[in-house]
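Case study 2.
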Amino acid sequence: MLQISGLTIFLTALYFTLLGVAWVKGYDMVMKLDASRLPMFYFVLTTIRFILTATLVLIYVLVSDNMASSRQFVVMVMAMYSTMMVVTLTLKH
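Prediction:
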């Protein structure tokens, strides 16, 4: 049974929405200023997103007192991260 609160799901979805918006807006800005820097933008923003997401998961696991809830959160975050990557890359390619 799902042990993650609705607020946690909402805040995680909001987090990934903001990361996706940053990706799309950053892509537009790089394309407008200097398209040759697009590979560096991809690398830097992907690294930032990965570090932020790993930190989010680590904080949740350390704060959570329930292992089942932590596992569900990790699976949810992985699914949301994958979905965000597919959507943002589909929008800009």
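The chain is about 85% helix and 0% strand.
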